[in-house]
Amino acid sequence: MVLRRRVSIETKTNHERWLVSYSDFITLLFAFFVVMYSVSQVNEEKYRVLSETFQSAFSQQANQAEPAKEAGEIASLQQLETELTAVLQGLIEQGSISVWGNEDWVEIEINSNVLFDSASADPSSQAQQVFSEVADVLAPFENAVAVSGHTDNIPIRNSRFASNWELSSARAVAVVKLLAYGGVGPARLSAIGYGEYQALADNSTEQGRAENRRVVLRVAKDKAAVPREGAVELMAQAGQQALEEPVPGEQGSPAIQPSVPQQDDIQENVVPEEAIEPIKLPNGGLLFTSDAKGRG
Question: Using the 8-state DSSP alphabet, how is residue 104 labeled?
Fold first, then answer.
């Protein structure tokens, strides 16, 4: 038996195979830049026409989705309630503001603690922000807006306010000024102070008194009506009748009777034609108006 010796075959290793992959990579990279360069060469005129077409299409779609607000129109109460709820959502969730509506108006009720310091009618920075947002919603429209101030029954007597009537009235006027400053037409606005005489809760508890300290905005479904002579006369008669009734004083003191001015006093204290005088209403409120003769 003959044994054959296995001869080993020497294998030569190619150490330059990476050049193949590198050349492929360079080729692909070159092709990529060629494509990018060709894409960048766009006809400017065609691009401009295409861009204007897209802008026009999107603009028409946006106008159809949200009709423009025309100045001077009457907004629907549902629309106002929806928009006011959206802008005041944070304070609504905190329980400081409530927004609701019916077929005649949308009502915004705000706790006075959010708007004013105790025994003050100077709006806080938060009040300015709140009524700036409310004014943005109300300004484009012509719906009448009535603002009323309310307090608890704790008597107040300081250097600025002699009664809760005056405090509540001053707060209502302060809110009206903020709305007017925010762009709401002054002819649409009115302010009235009810003092403690339109209570929502029991004033014998701290929680009840806190609920009663509030400012209420009512946005009507119609424009503000210009007072006519007959309406002004009725308001004046109601105010005179209310003023002739005795006003209760503080606890333990007699009722305060309104003083009757003498003829000389009337001549010496003539109210200027444009002065704003409060009219006390039978339901416990003070109406501020400069239209004492029925002027529009």
Answer: S
Owning domain of residue 173: 77-225
The label of the residue with tokens 């922000």 reads 129
- Residue 280 phi, psi (nearest 5): -80, 125
How large is the greatest C-alpha to C-alpha distance in the chain, in angstroms? 160
Task: State pLDDT tens for residues 257-292.
Answer: 333 333 333 333 333 444 455 666 666 666 655 454
Contacts of 7 (CB under 8 A, 6+ apart): none
**Amino acid in position 125:** S
Residue 251 CA to residue 264 CA, distance in Å, equals 34
Question: Which CATH number is 220's domain given?
Answer: 3.30.1330.60
Give residues with Cβ within 8 angstroms of 126, minimum separation 6.
114, 115
Q: What mean pLDDT, rounded, does the chain reach? A: 74
The helix/strand/coil state of 110 is strand
Please report, for residues 256, 258, 268, 269, the alpha-carbon distance to residue 263 in angstroms, rounded to integers and kept in the order given.
22, 16, 9, 10
Question: Tokens 């607000």, residue?
Answer: 69
Taking the alpha carbons of 187, 193, 198, 201 in that order, is the dihedral positive or negative? positive
- The answer as to whether 116 is a domain residue is yes
Question: Which one has a higher pLDDT value, 235 or 56?
Answer: 56
HSE, side-chain direction, 13 A CA sphere, residue 119: 10
Examine residue 65 and state whether it is found in any structural domain, yes or no. no
How many domains are there within the chain? Answer: 1
Gap between the Cα atoms of 213 and 209, Å rounded: 6
Could you count the other beta carbons within 10 Å of the beta carbon of residue 93?
Answer: 9
Residue whose C-alpha is closest to residue 288's, from 177, 182, 198, 197: 177
Instruction: Assess if residue 52 is contained within a domain.
Output: no
Assigned domain for 214 exists: yes
Which of 15-19, 78-82, 212-216, 281-285 bottoms out in mean pLDDT, i.e. has the lowest?
281-285
Nearest CA to 236 among 278, 180, 267?
Answer: 278
